[in-house]
């Protein structure tokens, strides 16, 4: 969300650098939403930017989405063309105070990201580290919800109309996710559970029961 042209200019560098550093995912440790903006003027922030972010966060709340990040891009070129500007941290501080509450880490700064400078690279490194961490946190949270929904579905297996085939597709999808993460032991657990459940239904059917 936010400035689409700005994000488009940053995307090539972001897509190249994000996968370069390895990250280890662990249980209990791809869906994160980002708002990107370029704002050096406190008046512009009061007039439009604050309202834009407010509308964006209201949409997130309506969809019960709590995984988000605000990226503020700072440009010395923009700053030099303005007068009577407050210190560069003022916009970031306002955003953190207005929207981040105790989650100040949900607002990060990119300083002149398209320049080849040590300052730019330092801000990129900090941004990428934060983005990788939040992506893993978001993935873990959504994976946990998926597992909870799967368990709820499994607990309904004694109810009329419950389908083993439909349930199989759900748990198999979870196994595929673990395989893609190269978490093969976790994937094997899913297949073992499916095998045990299927074997149970085969035994029940052989004893005169119904096979879903």
Structure description:
This protein has 212 residues and is mostly helical. Helices cover 61% and strands 8% of the residues. Strand 1 (33-38), helix 2 and strand 2 (68-74) form a beta-alpha-beta unit. The longest helix has 38 residues, at 118-155. It is elongated and about 75 Å long. This is Trafficking protein particle complex subunit 10. Residues 32-208 form the TRAPPC10/Trs130 N-terminal domain. Pfam families: TRAPPC10_1st. It comes from Tinamus guttatus.
Q: Helices, strands, pairings?
A:
Elements (H helix, E strand, L loop, with lengths): L3 H14 L15 E6 L3 H21 L5 E7 L1 H5 L8 H12 L6 E5 L6 H38 L8 H17 L3 H23 L6
Parallel strand pairs: 1-2, 2-3
Helix pairs in contact: 2-4, 5-6, 6-7
